[in-house]
Amino acid sequence: MSTVSTRGSPGAGPPLPGRPGSGLVHPVHPVRPHPAHGHPRQPHRAALSRPLFDPLAAVRPSDAPRWDVYLTGTVFLDIIFTGLDSAPVRGTESWARGMGSSPGGIANMATALARLGLRTSLAAAFGDDMYGDYCREELEAGEGIDLSLSHTVPGWHSPVTVSMAYEGERTMISHGHEAPPKNAATAYDPDAPECPPPATACVSSLVPGRPQEWIGTAARRGSRIFADVGWDETGRWDPAALAELPDCEAFLPNAAEAMRYTRTETPQAAAHALAEYVPVAVVTMGADGAYAVDARSGETATVPAITVEALDTTGAGDVFVAGFVTGSLAGWPLADRLAFAGLTAALSVQEFGGSLSAPGWPEIAAWWRRVGCQEADCGHYAFLDRILTDCAASAPPRRAVPTLGFRRTGEDG
């Protein structure tokens, strides 16, 4: 599979600040067929979802910031078609065997973090259309993500991505317009709390030549910054164009990006070169797993990818980063963080969509009970035994749905 996926420029304007994906899974060749219309409609939740346990409970100090992680970006509505036998052919009509809809873009990362039990705050613009209402409800009421720094923009329609999955790959078509600037009177609540808020960590996607001042502000306040990067459309691949790199604790590009930025020939060499810029450099290598270097200790780690049948690889890179952030804040060893990130990414590609495919602790525990000890390299995941102590079975998580806006009949709330 490709390790590169970026949301293209909407219309003739600049790219929206979404989140590029960089998978760390090894899909076997046929994409698994799915029931004809995706997942069945799921019941409405009026109450916030709660993770079964808090992975940071043992290490979070009493005076810690309210939020474990803060992030900002563009929320897309993702419409995903799966079960295509091949790429669409010009002048023909293709029918997909599966379809799902879910929040996408920065929602992928926010949902993955929240499902892993991190207290997550997201600042994003939402359109005042049905798509925007759906995405807001899924994230806030369904996933327990704090949206107090988010806002609804009158007259602005939600950005949309259509993703087509076939042969272990996906092709994406996006459309949208950038939200009005922060000083637009109709866009922002003047009584909203400061942004960025105090948070233990922040996650961002760096954009060459487009500085994000909030990252430096957050770093100066003590937030730990984790970042990846999108494809450099300029073709310059100059690390100096990533103005926020010196503020980052960890940088997580994929192999193609890392080698271009460092002018190296292997992902491993690229990781060592990037470790001169950041304390921790992680390079994802698709079917070959991931490699990481800790410049502070000199430690290195490599973990192979997990072979899975991939239904939809959208957002796998976001889930990988979320897993790595979780392990980092919990204080796990480098190799355990890398293995956990790869596992969460592998579990995510077996479901529709980039956000609602993210696994929670019940899915991780179920995988370890069912598969973990049978894997040839199960030693990479043995650390799960000391973590998965309170993961009882729970109701299935919310997944992507084939449509939205059903008329409610006889449901609570």
What does this structure look like?
Helix 1 packs across helix 6, helix 4 crosses helix 5 (267-274) and helix 6 (316-330) runs antiparallel to helix 7. The chain has an 8-stranded mixed beta sheet with strand order 5-2-10-11-12-13-14-15, with helices on both faces. It has a 4-stranded mixed beta sheet with strand order 4-3-8-9. Strands 1-16 form a two-stranded parallel ribbon. The N and C termini lie far apart (42 Å). It is built from 9 helices and 16 strands. The protein has 413 residues and is α/β, with parallel strands linked by helices. It is 22% helix and 19% strand.
Structure keywords:
413 residues, alpha/beta, 8-stranded mixed sheet, 22% helix, globular, disordered N terminus
